[in-house]
Design brief:
By secondary structure, the chain is of the alpha/beta class. It contains ten helices and 14 strands. It is 43% helix and 23% strand. The longest helix is centred in the middle third of the chain and has 14 residues. The chain is elongated.
Length: 248
């Protein structure tokens, strides 16, 4: 008789489950949402305040954070700032309709995506999977680095330097820069950036590209009125300067 391998398969499946930290104070939202995500195969940790959320984040090291903007003991954006001090763990912000400034600021602070309330569990699960899928850069065979001018990217260590100085980027900023560097000197259309960096079936506004480009420029020390690295092709997309341009 062959040994039963089912327990082994179950153990492997459990070990491969991704952990999500949901920081949301409204139980009417957090409880059904946590249940829905668990049914989708995720391990879900919950916290009802900023303090509990940060404590759980530090002790449990989740794979992704779902973070409400409004919390009883603080602002979700402050939680995001604290997370970004030491981690690039993907963060998806949960915001109410009409809070555009919260969404824009959240993206500038390093959020990887945002979902506007009310939302369906199916939509959120799709967003979560898309962010997790893109949170790890796959390194092309035989290629571990990209260098254009004084900007260098190491795909294995997920790090960037400009003129030898470290540049701290969020996951989305890193992916955005990677795509632009790979086609340095060429126009990359906005829809191509959305499909490559976010998802071909992106639910949100394409303005998120502009927000991330703005944040990337700041971190590269670019002057938005006369950029050296990331140039806007109005109404079409963006272009990273060629090595020849940067050598001038």
């Amino acid at each position: 008789m062959k040994p039963n391998s089912k327990p082994i398969r179950i153990l492997i499946a459990v070990m491969n489950r991704r952990a999500i930290l949901l920081i949301e104070d409204e139980q009417s939202i957090s409880e059904p949402l946590a249940a829905a995500l668990r049914s989708e195969g995720f391990d879900v940790l919950t916290a009802g305040s900023a303090a509990d959320g940060l404590e759980t984040f530090r002790t449990r090291s989740p794979d992704l954070v779902l973070l409400d903007v409004m919390l009883p003991d603080g602002d979700g954006k402050d939680v995001l700032r604290e997370i970004r001090r030491s981690s690039r763990t993907p963060v998806v912000m949960l915001t109410a309709r009409g809070e555009e400034m919260d969404r824009v600021l959240g993206l500038e602070l390093g959020a990887d995506d945002y979902v506007t309330k009310p939302f369906s569990a199916a939509e959120l699960s799709a967003r979560v999977r898309a962010v997790l899928r893109r949170s790890t850069t796959s390194v092309p065979v035989g290629r571990s680095a990209i260098e254009v001018g004084d900007v260098a990217m190491n795909l294995e260590t997920h790090s960037v330097t400009r003129a030898g100085e470290k540049v701290d980027l969020t996951v989305k900023e890193f992916e955005l820069l990677r795509v632009l560097l790979e086609d340095a000197g060429k126009l990359v259309r906005r829809d191509a950036l959305v499909a490559e960096v976010w998802d071909p079936n992106w639910f949100g506004s394409t303005k998120t590209v502009d927000v991330h480009v703005s944040a990337l420029r700041k971190k590269l020390g670019d002057d938005p009125s006369s950029p050296r690295y990331v140039h806007t092709v109005r109404g079409v997309g963006f272009r990273f300067a060629s090595a020849a341009e940067l050598a001038e």
